[in-house]
Amino acid sequence: MSGDIKGARSGPEENRLQGHWLLAKMGKRVLRPGGLEMTTTLLEHAELKPTQTVVEFGPGVGKTASLLLQTPPSSYIGVDPHTEGTSDVSRILKNYPHVASRLVAADAKDTGLEDGVADMVMGEAMLTMMSPADKIATMREAARLLKPGGKYVIHEMGLIPDDIAPELAQQLQKEISRTIKVGARPLTMPEWQQLLTEAGLAVEFTYSNSMSLLEPKRLLADEGLVGVLRIVKNMITNPAGRKRMLAMRAIFDEYADNLCAVGIIATKPLAE
């Protein structure tokens, strides 16, 4: 066993990267389970206005940040404890000098930002990777940051059907976590909604989509032809990365009947 661990640590970096950073290294820019379609649908319904402030949890490489900034809001705050995507997001922010923007190195469940700073908080593909305690803590932090009437937008991995057998859910979580090298704990739509309610928020909009992150049709829709060609080139020239990507696609295909993408918009109640 110790020899396997040592070999994994001394092998290619691609063998150790968490799934989303592996995909980013291979050229993928849209790293959300429901694709660009779900993100844009959620943003349309959230109706961010030019006078408002948005906080984004886990901007990653900045794809959603670029969409948010196109509104544009009056200010943008990106919160991420990791620095892998900081340079990418910073480059995007420079394209919108008229928006007051900043990046904060902090955990989403303890941002250090002031109460009621945001009209909208958005987080994608992050709650899925958290423990149950961290999920609810992050949702409560989003609620704290929101002004009354503000909206919390999430885009996560989901389980189907709603009455999925617990044994199957546990098996699926274990297999996906092993493949993407980070703990994955997706929930059913009702379970996601229940957590948001426990955090003091009122669910006002739900949306679901297929979990087709690495399928050719979704890749083309999300990345465009140039983006797909970039990914293909990287797969040809990077055997270790190609192997990981194919393993991820295989596990998503294996559990296709029990995986989906979940989008929810929840509102902080108005003060009485």
UniProtKB/TrEMBL annotation:
Q: Where is the Methyltransferase type domain?
A: 56-154
* GO aspect biological process, one term: methylation
Top-rank taxon: Bacteria
The keyword Transferase is assigned to this record: yes
- Which UniProt keywords are listed? Methyltransferase, Transferase
Q: Which Pfam families does the entry mention?
A: Methyltransf_11 (PF08241)
Q: Write down the Gene3D superfamilies for this protein, in alphabetical order.
A: Vaccinia Virus protein VP39
Q: InterPro entries given for it?
A: Methyltransf_11, SAM-dependent_MTases_sf
Q: What Gene Ontology molecular-function terms does this entry list?
A: S-adenosylmethionine-dependent methyltransferase activity
**Name assigned to this protein:** Methyltransferase domain-containing protein
**Organism name:** Arcanobacterium phocae
What is the phylogenetic placement of the source species in the record? Bacteria, Bacillati, Actinomycetota, Actinomycetes, Actinomycetales
